[in-house]
Amino acid sequence: MNTEDMVRRLVFIVLLIFFSFCNNNLCGSDTNPDDHDKGGWKLLKRSIGISAMHIALLPNDRFIVFDRSIAGSSNISLPGANDHGCNINGDCYAHSIEFSPSTRSVRALKVKTDTFCSSGAISSDGVLVQTGGFNNGDHAVRYFKPCNDSNCDWEEHVNDLSTRRWYASNHILPNGKIIVVGGRREFTYEFIPKTSPSDAALHYLPFLEKTRDSLQLENNLYPFLHLAPDGNLFVFANNRSILLDYKANRVVRDYPVMPGGVSRNYPSSGSSVLLPLKLSTSSSRSSITTTSSPTTMIEAEVLICGGTPSDSNTKANNGMFVLASNTCGRLVITEENPKWEMEEMPFNRTMGDMVLLPNGDVMIINGASRGTAGWNVARDPVLQPVLYQPCVSNNSSIPRFKVLKPSTIPRLYHSVAYLLSDARILVGGSNPYIHYTFDGLYPTELSLEAFSPPYLSRKSMRPQISFVTPGTRISYKQRFSVGFQCKVEVEDVKVTLVAPPFTTHSVSMSQRLLVLDMGEVRRLASGSDYAAEVYAPATEFLAPQGYYRLFVVNGGVPSRAVWVHIS
């Protein structure tokens, strides 16, 4: 460790001590009326045995977490190693686990192929479909089917991809297929599962090659993918974006270059969300005459934040840690002539995670203010989450960005954040080293924390779902009722659906939130019981078939979720 890093570590330890005092109510938080408005942290598990590089939530409300199978020793062993055999490098340590938030229990899983920097999606039937990686895993497709006992584990198909996929991105599609886009030095996309001979085809996408800065400096890996309301796919790489008709392999439109002179994708590693889709009465109830002409009146807007200047990774590998970007851009991708609306975050940030909250706000969390993604090439962790309120006007006196209570744990390269079903944020991982290193500048982190957004401090406003009628299996355009209880008079009630994403490397694949069209909200016989009339999305273009978490939101405060299935 050089002198500069030693100084940085000393300063960081001082800051950790300061924040630790604050988080333990020694900085006057009991008497500060604004403290509850900044959220709070709770340690869920000191160690899950592995560092959380990749994560997904299944419909049984259990997380599947994994790092990479060639990371060497982890801190959790495979059960019955003599029966299970060992990993490809001869160790008998687990590199994947199942985590139950309700019990905080951890179960070791066995993954044989190398999952390093891979991608994934949740299929329409609730199975984690996980693709690519490194070495013997770069052509693999892996499946994890949820179960309520301890008998399920990874199923791996070593050669189910048509080409090598490392740092690729996935998205669930309206027809139930999953598209796999890009990867290191791969300028194609393909579909899985491969149920017909035509599925083996590779589709060349020149955009992926054009957005690469150089052979050594890519800045277009893990491209951002968002399904537009017309069924086409928004693809963003580096600082440019297109709308892709993936069926015809045709670029429908080119969007303006994102301003700022900043690269937004890996290893510069900004992050992106599709802002909540608000389903109007006409879009939720109208008849769609043809599947080739889906509902198009829904406005879709993309938000992209953070990243670094394009040469930052090269400089960081030579010991020069460039300040990351503090800019965000919004683009309404459904407008005829869209333009980027730029704004500034309170912090410079690379490797941040953006999580859609059930009330439509966005949490920006994790990351560093200098350097990039990569092995030990980031400095100055950003400990403070930031709440972004997209519905606040940019000209309003109310700020769109709100700085929240800091964590005491740095979450840098290979960290994750994910929405829990109780509306908190699960935060884990961080390992900027090739192997687990607990005495480095920013040590390998095996813990899981939960961050409670400010809305959870308004307990009396919080609804509790009591029923979904006629049931939790819902058809497109169906009218259904959601019952809930609330201790106080309800106000501005919304019902939202949140798709379960696959998250890694600051990219939350298939993350999606829909604000459903509402009918009447009526009080039932009991003064605290209510029922809301709700309309399901009209088509699979708005909501690809599959599992979603349904939340009732009262005055900006969400309930605990109930899982539903749309088909």
Count of helices?
Answer: 5
Low-confidence stretches: 13-34, 286-294
Strand percent estimate: 25-35%
Distance N terminus to C terminus? Answer: 55 Å
Helicity, in percent?
under 10%
What is the radius of gyration computed over CA atoms, rounded to a whole number of angstroms? 23 Å
> Largest beta sheet, briefly?
7 strands, mixed
Q: What is the count of β-strands?
A: 43
Structural class: mainly beta
The overall pLDDT, averaged over residues, is 90
- Categorize the overall geometry: globular
Task: Write the SSE topology.
Layout: H1 3-23, E1 40-45, E2 54-57, E3 63-66, H2 81-84, E4 96-100, E5 105-109, E6 119-122, E7 128-131, E8 141-144, E9 155-157, E10 169-172, E11 178-181, E12 188-192, E13 203-204, H3 206-210, E14 224-227, E15 233-237, E16 240-245, E17 250-254, E18 271-274, E19 277-278, H4 281-285, E20 301-305, H5 312-317, E21 327-332, E22 341-344, E23 353-356, E24 362-365, E25 368-371, E26 378-381, E27 386-388, E28 401-403, E29 415-419, E30 425-429, E31 448-452, E32 464-469, E33 473-474, E34 479-485, E35 493-499, E36 502-504, E37 507-509, E38 512-515, E39 517-523, E40 529-535, E41 546-554, E42 557-558, E43 562-566
Parallel strand pairs: 19-38, 33-43
Antiparallel strand pairs: 1-31, 2-3, 2-36, 3-4, 4-5, 6-7, 7-8, 8-9, 10-11, 11-12, 12-13, 14-15, 15-16, 16-17, 18-20, 20-21, 21-22, 23-24, 24-27, 25-26, 27-28, 29-30, 30-31, 32-34, 34-40, 35-38, 35-41, 36-37, 39-40, 41-42, 41-43
Organism: Stephania yunnanensis
Signal peptide: 1-27
Pfam families: Glyoxal_oxid_N, GO-like_E_set
